[in-house]
Structures are given as C-alpha cells and as structure tokens.
Amino acid sequence: MTSIYARSDLIDGSNPNPLNKVPEVTAAFWLIKLMAVTMGETAADYLNVNLGLGLSTTSMMMSVILIGTLALQFSRSRYVPWTYWLNVVLISVVGTLVTDNLVDNLGVGLVTCTIGFSLLLAGTFAAWFATEGTLSIHDVDNTQRETFYWLAILFTFALGTAAGDLVAEQFALGYLASGVLFGSVIASLAIGYFFLGLDGILAFWLVYILTRPLGASFGDLLSQPTDYGGMGFGTILTSLGFLSVIALTVVAMTIAHRQER
C-alpha cells in the first residue's frame, strides 16, 4: 500500500506517471489555480448579479456545463492542459454557487457551511485513501481516483468560499485584511514544507483549500464598489483580466507539455 505521505506535492516539478490525469505541481500550477479561483468568484457574481440570471438559474446552467466538460476530462487518457484547467475554472464557479445557494437561498449560516464542507472534504479524503491507499495527485490515473479528485476539488472550492465569506463578512475583516490573513497562512505552510518537514500531501491540500478564499478576497477587493470596501473595477473587467492570465498560462503549459512528450 502506498503511504499517504509517499511524495512531496506542494511544489514538485517531477511527474513520473505518464498516465496521470492532473498537472505537475509547479509555480505555474499555483499561479493559474489562484487566477482560476479568483475568476470563479467574480464570474459567479457577474452571471448572478450583473446579467440578472439569479442564483438558481446560474447554478443550473453552470452545473450542466460542468457536467459536460467533466465528461470530456474523464474521456481523456492522460493530462490535457486546456481540458483540465477549463474544469478547474468551471468547478470554481459551481463551488462558489453551491455555497451562495445554501447561504442566500436556504438560509444556512456560514459557520454551518464551513463545518459541513470540512466534514464532506474529510469524508472524501477518507474514502479515497481507504479505497486507493494514497491521496497523491501524482497518481490520478484511473476513473475512481479521478472521481475522488474532482469531488475533493469541488468541496475545497465550496469550503473556501464559505470560509472566505465568514472571515471577510461575518467577522468583518474586509477583503484586503482577509486576503493578507489567508496569504500569511499559506506562506506559513510553505515555510513548514520547505524548511520544517511538513508533509507534502498535507501541505498541498491545505494550500489548495486556502487559495480559494485568498483568490476570492482579492477578487472581491478588485471588483466590488468602493462603498463596499472594493476598488471598483467591476466584475467584467476583473474577470477578463484574470481570464487573460489563465489563457496565456494554459497556452504556455500546453506548449511545454507537448515538448516534453
């Protein structure tokens, strides 16, 4: 049985498994992941508020699109950059909408959502490890592991949204202070991983969760009106800016991936 702590996963440029369905964990991985989660926050707000679709319609529409793109992802025999990152962007939007629906439409508290999604994520990891013997993202090379992987990703986004809103709104820290707080925690985890022997897989998943509220905090800071503590750039400009960075990074990753094959 492969140990849960078999490999270092926070930043590890090696990806020895040619059938792995997810990318190498590099600096580019974290850059595009942060951009994707930030865009997920602003895109959800744009569809829901600016276009006036409402939470329910937006959620159903984005969920249907996500199901289609996930089917495409599962049909691949190995990692394809544009397919993978398209799903990350869409699942970021859907994860945000799941939490927003629970809070705004069903009246579930942010504390309850944060605890609930933490338990769901922990249960997903427990089931994943019990059946596969590893949580390493270097070995997502079969349908069952990929199913656990994407389910965990969905819960990290929903959890990150709930935790970020809890800190920024209910605890009233504001967008900038919340972003600095989550960024400081991520920096502490990086120090623990690189210098203090913190396990790589544990560090990876903790950072993966925390980049969601980090991105959401700065996304709201840029997009929200100044009256609400933001910089007033709006959801359209903010979303397009982050989408451009995502697109350019995916193109670069695709070129690099083809050269390696």
Automatic annotation (TrEMBL):
- The superkingdom listed in its UniProt entry is Bacteria
Q: Which UniProt keywords apply?
A: Membrane, Transmembrane, Transmembrane helix
Q: Where are the transmembrane segments?
A: 51-73, 79-99, 106-128, 148-168, 180-210, 230-256
What name appears for this protein in its UniProt entry?
Answer: Membrane-anchored protein
Species of origin: Donghicola mangrovi
